[in-house]
Design brief:
The structure holds 3 protein chains of 3 kinds. By secondary structure, chain A is an alpha+beta fold. Chain A has 18 helices and 10 strands. Chain A has helices at residues 29-36, 85-89, 98-102, 109-124, 130-159, 163-183, 205-227, 231-237, 245-250, 256-260, 267-270, 291-315, 333-338, 340-352, 392-397, 400-404, 409-418, 423-427; strands at 12-16, 22-26, 45-49, 61-67, 70-77, 192-193, 196-197, 359-367, 370-378, 386-390. A 4-stranded parallel beta sheet of chain B has the order 1-2-3-4. In chain B, helix 1 packs antiparallel against helix 5 and helix 2 (50-59) crosses helix 5.
Chain lengths: 428, 208, 212
C-alpha cells in the first residue's frame, strides 16, 4: 500500500485588509483537523476531469488524486486533439502549410502565419520588404490582443465572473471585422506567404485599427475596475499556483508564465525579429509567479500591444509587400498573362512549389502563449523533411502538476486557466 | 411515413397503449411539443477546436444564440438536447463523443459544425475521424472552416425546422441503434467509402 | 559560429563528431551515448550556462540510409546564445538514448512526444508513455517515414479500434496505484493490469439492458 504523502494544507479564505485590498486569511484548519480526527484524513480519491469539460479550455483530461478537496497529484492527459499537423506538413509545399498553421493556435492565427513565413524565409535566406515587416508586426500584435482577450474572458468564467467574457468578446468582434476585411476570414486567416503577404491592407483598415486602439482601452479599464482589486478575484488568484523563476526555467516555460515568475525573457527583446528592437514598448515582469501575477502580466501586455500597433501604423511605409523575386513569389497576374517567363514561374510555383536549399532553420517568435518556434529541415525539395512546431502551450502545461500540488480543486481550475493553453497547439 | 399499425420494437414502444390515426388532436399536440422542443434546444457544446471559438462568438453578444433559446449550455449530456460537435474529432476522442452521445436522453439531435466534423476537413491523415457521422448519427451538417456564426445560426434554424416536422407517433425517429457487434455504427464498407479522399487530398500521398 | 562548439570540442574531444552551421545557427553532432554528460556540462559550466532547454525533437530523413537524429536545442538566457545538438541513432539498432529529465524537468513531455511519434526509448525517463496517441495505439509510430500518411489500417478498422478503446481503461499504473482504485478493481482486471494489458475491459453483452 503506497504511503500517503503528507502535505501542508494551505486552506485560506478571502478577507479585506485595512487598505481595502483583498487578502488571504489562512485557516489553519487542515493539519489541526487531521490531528484531531485521524479517521477523516483518510483515503485519496481518483477523479477524472474531462476531456469534455467546460473549464478545461478544450479537450484536456486531468486525472486528479484528491485528499478531500485538496489536490495531491494531477496527471494531465493530452492528445485528444492530435491532428497530425507535423506529418501533414511533410506532404505539402511550404506555402501550402500556411492554412495548417491557422488551425493550431486558433486564438491568435496571424501570429502562426507570421512565424511560418519567417521560418521559411530564414531557411531560404529571403529578405522581406519594409512594408511587409511592419504589417506583420501589426498582425502579431493584433493576434496578441485577441488571444489575451479570450484568455481573460474564459479565465473570468472559470473563476466565476461571466460579464467580462461578453465585454471582451465584443472587442474581439471588432478585431475580427478588421481581420475579415484584410484576409477574408475571421479566424483562419492564412495571411502570409513565403516572401510576403497574401494581400495588402484595404482602405479604411488603418482608420479602423486606430479607432480600435483608441477605444479598446476603455473596455480594458472597465475590466480592470471589475477585477484587479476585487476581493474575490484576489482571493482566488493570489498565492495560487506559484512557481519560482528557477523552476520556471527548469520547466522550459515561456511567455507570461515565465515572466510572471520574475524571469525577463521575451523573444521580442532578446532575440528580436521584424525590427522589434526599434519599437518602444515595455515587457511586464511579475514577482510572485502566481495566477494573479500572470493576470497582471497579460493585462499589461495587451495594453503594450496597443502601443506597438500605434507606432507601427505611424511608421507604415509605402511600397510593395512582396519581395521582388519571381522564384519565390507568384508573379502578378497581369505579367502571367502577358509574359512567358512569368507564366512558367507561376506554373512551377503552383505545381511544384518553391524549393528550399538544403539546410535547417529554427525561428522563434513571442506568440501570446510563449515562445513559438518552427523548426524546418529541408533536403532541397519543395516539401520539408521535418516540420517541428515548438509548442509553448504544450510545454507550459507540463508544469501543471508541479503548480497544483497542495491546492484545492477549485484552485486547480484557476491554475489551469492561467496556463493559457490552446489545445490545437498542445496536441497538434 | 405515417403512423404504424402495431407498436414496433423501440424504447418508446411499450408506452403506446393503442395506436391512433392522425387527427386534429395529435397534430396540435405535435405542434405544441415540437414548438417547445425547437425553441429551447439546449446544446451540449462538444467544442474541440477552432469551430468552438466561432461557436463561442455565436453565443456572445453580437450573434447571440439566446435569441433561439440556446443560451443555456448544458455541459452535462444528461440535460442536453443537441450535441453540437464544433471542431475536428481525432480517433482518440471518438469513444468520448460516442459515450457522450449515448449518455444523452432522447429526444436528441446532432449538429456537425465545420468541415472537419462533417468530413474530416483538411486533416485526411492517420489521426482524424473522417466525419463524425461514422461515429454518431448526424442531423445537420454546417460547412465552413470555420463557419461564420451566421452559418451556424442557419444550421440551427434548419435543425429547428427539422424538429418542427417531426411527429410523436413515428417511433423510428427516436429509435436508437447501439454499435453493432463489430463495434461500428455503419458497415465497414460504408465507413471506408465515406472516408475516401477526394479533391486535393487524393494527391497528398507523395512526400517530395 | 557559436564559440561553445569549440569549447565542446576542447572538453569532450571524440564525443563531438561534427560541427556545422545552417541559417545562422550552430549545429553540433554528438555521440548519443554521452548526451547526458554533454548537456549537463552545457548547463552547469559557468561560461556556457545554457540553462533553458528550448526543444527536444527527432528528425528522420527521406534517405533511408541516414540515421535518425535526436535534436536538442538549448539557449542561454544570460548570454543570449543558442545552440543545437544532434545525436544520431542508427536505425538498424533499437532506438534508445538517455533521458535528460534529471537535468531539465521540461524534457519530460518533450521526450514522451518523441517516443510517441518516433519510437525512440529514453532510458530512465520517469514515465515513458505515449502522450498524443492513446496508449494501446497499434498502428506504429506516426512520424516515421515508413508510416503512411493515412495510417496502416483501413478507415473502418481505425474507427473500430478507436471506438473500442474505452477511455476509462486508460489510467496509467501511476494513477491506479492510488489506494482506493487499486483495491477496488475487480480481480481479473488487476491480473490483466499486472501483466501489462490495458484497454481490454469487456463490454457488457448486448441485449441485457432493461426494458422500459
Amino acid at each position: 500500500m503506497p504511503e500517503k504523502r503528507s502535505i501542508e494544507l494551505n486552506l485560506a479564505t478571502t478577507g479585506i485588509d485595512d487598505r481595502g485590498a483583498g487578502m488571504r486569511v489562512p485557516l489553519g484548519i487542515g493539519t489541526a483537523l487531521a490531528e484531531r480526527e485521524p479517521d477523516l484524513g483518510g483515503e485519496h480519491m481518483l477523479i477524472n476531469i474531462g476531456p469534455q469539460h467546460p473549464a478545461t479550455h478544450g479537450v484536456l483530461r486531468l486525472v486528479v488524486e484528491l485528499d478531500g478537496e485538496v489536490v495531491v497529484r494531477v496527471i494531465p492527459h493530452v492528445g485528444y486533439l492530435h491532428s497530425g499537423f507535423e506529418k501533414l506538413g511533410e506532404y505539402r509545399h511550404y506555402n501550402q502549410i500556411i492554412p495548417l498553421t491557422d488551425r493550431m493556435d486558433y486564438l491568435a492565427p496571424m501570429s502562426n502565419n507570421v512565424v511560418l513565413a519567417l521560418a521559411v524565409e530564414k531557411l531560404m535566406g529571403i529578405e522581406i520588404t519594409e512594408r511587409c515587416k511592419v504589417l506583420r508586426v501589426i498582425a502579431c500584435e493584433m493576434s496578441r490582443i485577441i488571444s489575451h482577450l479570450v484568455w481573460l474572458g474564459t479565465t473570468s468564467i472559470d473563476i466565476g465572473a461571466f460579464t467580462p467574457f461578453l465585454w471582451l468578446f465584443q472587442e474581439r468582434e471588432r478585431i475580427y471585422n478588421l481581420q475579415e476585411a484584410w484576409t477574408g476570414a475571421r479566424l483562419t486567416t492564412s495571411m502570409t506567404r513565403v516572401g510576403g503577404l497574401m494581400a495588402d491592407i484595404p482602405d479604411g483598415f488603418e482608420d479602423g485599427l486606430r479607432d480600435f486602439c483608441r477605444t479598446f482601452t476603455k473596455t480594458l479599464d472597465e475590466v480592470d475596475r471589475a477585477l484587479t482589486r476585487n476581493a474575490i478575484w484576489c482571493g482566488r488568484t493570489q498565492g495560487i499556483g506559484a512557481l519560482t523563476g528557477a523552476e520556471a526555467i527548469n520547466y522550459s516555460l515561456s511567455g507570461a508564465m515565465l515572466r510572471a515568475s520574475g524571469v525577463a525573457y521575451d523573444v521580442r527583446k532578446d532575440r528580436p525579429y521584424l525590427d522589434y528592437e526599434t519599437y518602444d514598448f515595455d515587457v511586464p515582469i511579475g514577482e510572485h509567479g502566481d495566477v494573479y501575477d500572470r493576470y497582471l502580466v497579460r493585462f499589461e501586455e495587451t495594453r503594450q500591444a496597443g502601443r506597438i500597433i500605434e507606432q507601427a501604423l505611424d511608421r507604415l511605409p509605402d511600397g510593395p509587400i512582396n519581395v521582388d523575386d519571381p522564384r519565390v513569389i507568384l508573379p502578378p497576374k497581369s505579367a502571367v498573362m502577358n509574359d512567358m517567363e512569368s507564366m512558367i514561374f507561376h506554373f512551377k510555383h503552383v505545381m511544384e512549389g518553391v524549393k528550399a536549399p538544403v539546410g535547417e532553420a529554427y525561428m522563434p517568435i513571442e506568440s501570446p502563449k510563449g515562445e513559438l518556434g518552427y523548426y524546418f529541415v529541408s533536403d532541397g525539395t519543395a516539401k520539408p523533411v521535418r516540420w517541428r512546431v515548438r509548442p509553448p502551450a504544450f510545454i507550459n502545461l507540463a508544469a501543471l502538476p508541479r503548480m497544483s500540488e497542495g491546492h484545492l480543486l477549485s484552485d486547480l481550475i484557476a491554475i489551469n486557466a492561467s496556463v493559457d493553453i490552446v489545445m490545437g497547439e498542445v496536441d497538434r | 411515413m405515417g403512423v404504424t399499425a402495431e407498436p414496433t420494437a423501440g424504447p418508446g414502444a411499450s408506452h403506446i397503449v393503442a395506436p391512433v390515426s392522425p387527427n386534429w388532436v395529435t397534430t396540435r399536440l405535435d405542434f405544441l411539443v415540437n414548438w417547445a422542443r425547437s425553441n429551447s434546444l439546449w446544446p451540449m457544446p462538444f467544442g474541440t477546436a477552432c469551430c468552438a471559438i466561432e461557436f463561442m462568438a455565436a453565443a456572445a453578444s453580437r450573434y447571440d444564440i439566446a435569441r433561439f433559446g440556446m443560451e443555456r449550455m448544458s455541459f452535462s449530456p444528461r440535460q442536453a438536447d443537441v450535441l453540437l460537435c464544433a471542431g475536428r474529432l481525432p480517433f482518440k476522442l471518438a469513444p468520448v463523443i460516442r459515450r457522450i452521445y449515448d449518455q444523452m436522453p432522447q429526444p436528441k439531435w446532432v449538429i456537425s459544425m465545420g468541415a472537419c466534423a462533417s468530413t474530416g476537413g483538411i486533416f485526411d491523415n492517420y489521426a482524424m475521424v473522417q466525419g463524425i457521422d461514422t461515429v454518431v448519427p448526424v442531423d445537420v451538417y454546417v460547412p465552413g472552416c470555420p463557419p461564420r456564426p451566421e452559418g451556424l445560426l442557419y444550421g440551427i434554424l434548419l435543425l429547428q425546422k427539422k424538429v418542427r416536422g417531426e411527429t410523436l407517433a413515428d417511433h423510428a425517429i427516436r429509435e436508437e441503434r447501439p454499435l453493432d457487434e463489430r463495434g461500428l455504427r455503419l458497415s465497414p464498407q460504408l465507413v471506408d467509402e465515406l472516408s475516401e479522399p477526394f479533391g486535393n487530398s487524393v494527391h497528398q500521398t507523395r512526400s517530395a | 559560429m557559436n564559440p561553445s562548439a569549440a569549447a565542446l570540442r576542447a572538453q569532450f574531444d571524440a564525443a563531438i563528431t561534427r560541427v556545422t552551421e545552417s541559417c545562422g545557427d550552430t549545429i553540433v553532432y554528438v555521440d548519443p551515448t554521452r548526451v547526458r554528460e554533454i548537456l549537463a556540462w552545457l548547463k552547469d559550466a559557468p561560461e556556457q550556462d545554457y540553462d533553458y532547454l528550448v526543444d527536444i525533437t527527432a528528425v528522420e530523413y527521406r534517405d533511408a540510409g541516414l540515421p535518425i537524429d535526436v535534436v536538442y536545442q538549448v539557449f542561454s538566457l544570460r548570454r543570449k546564445a543558442f545552440l543545437r545538438l544532434k545525436a544520431p541513432l542508427d536505425k538498424r539498432e533499437p532506438l534508445a538514448i538517455d533521458s535528460v529529465v534529471p537535468i531539465w524537468a521540461g524534457a519530460d513531455w518533450m521526450e514522451r512526444e518523441v517516443y510517441d511519434m518516433f519510437g525512440i526509448t529514453f532510458r530512465e525517463h520517469p514515465d515513458l508513455r505515449r502522450i498524443l496517441m492513446w496508449e494501446t495505439y497499434a498502428e506504429g509510430y506516426p512520424l516515421r517515414k515508413d508510416f503512411p500518411l493515412r495510417g496502416r489500417f483501413s478507415r473502418a478498422e481505425q474507427v473500430r479500434q478507436a471506438l473500442g478503446a474505452n477511455p476509462e481503461a486508460h489510467y496509467s499504473m501511476e494513477e491506479l496505484s492510488i489506494v482506493q482504485a487499486a483495491t477496488e478493481l475487480p480481480a481479473d482486471m488487476r491480473d490483466r493490469l499486472a501483466r501489462g494489458e490495458r484497454g481490454k475491459i469487456a463490454e457488457p453483452p448486448r441485449g441485457e439492458t432493461t426494458d422500459a
